[in-house]
Records
---
Amino acid sequence: MAEEYYMKSLKIKIKYKDEEGIANTCDQLGILAWEQQDFKLAKKWCEESLEIWKKHGDKRRTAGTYHQLGVIAQEQQDFASAEARYKNSLEIKEEKGDEYGAALTYGQLGVLAAKQRDVQSAAAHFLKAIEGLASTGDEYHLAIAVHNYARLLHTAPPSEREALRSRWEEQMPKEMAEYLTECLKKAWKNMEEDANDAQE
């Protein structure tokens, strides 16, 4: 039903040469295809919208679509392309001073690095995400970033854990260090309990 509606909308926008409207609908079709796990189709729609956003000089939308293309590539296990797309997005966001958007992309770069077992790169990205999110008041995504760091610490080889703890202590925003460290401890405790339950 949703796809049918979007396709009808797209035809009308193409008829009237409403390029920004076309790009908006392509983005929606891309998200819909991604939700249906049709990643090839999702990539097609997002690439079409990307070209229009770039043509119109809309950097915010360009950055957002690059980020979405990174998510799609990551789902396809194309990690090199995912990293390139995330970095395209990050470059624009940092250039525009979009601290919140950059923090979300740093979080995705952390997930990507963790998937490839690049522990120290993942840690650096997660800490950048936490730093950015701590100043925006987005507690939901902040909690996710802290949880991801705890998971990284929990699954890292013992030889790397001390370095991860040191990085945490050195890079935490001072005004939130106590609160965030308590969140990290809770996340670690939950993972330990889950691991013990799985062994029983």
---
Amino acid sequence: MIRKFDKFQFVGELSVKVAPCFKDFYKCVSNVVWSDINLKKEFISLLRRVLLNDIGGFTIMKVSIYLSGAVRQFSYWFVHGTLGYPILEGIDYLNELEEDSSCMEQAFSIFMNNIELDQEGNVLNYKYCEKRAAEYIRRYFKPDDSPDKPFEDWELELHPVSKEAYNQ
């Protein structure tokens, strides 16, 4: 049975086969039995456009405006010395950080490792993330102070930037 070629349906049906190997999609495409060489060429052309994000593709992701806003707000309060009020009240962490910036790096990681987004990219727990980062800074400068709950290993992980980002 021959059916009409619907580009978008076809991409959707083959995405399961193609997705695991986007970087070598020609190899994936060649594993499909093609009855018409023009159909194969048209599919490869369409797939290229999807991969290049020309038709709403999904390989290039942007952070949501809300995540961007959360990072901006966190950064603003951090550099103005008002982060996590009143948790850091009386702690002049900005002057101290000139000597040791690893605390700042860890605070940003804690903030980002805790952040949660919904399907639309809305930030669900900004104040909690800010609080956890502030608790870390407080503990850094006042080791006898302990946070509301101990930090878990995953909160403290320092994740790398992707390899590709360093080469662009």
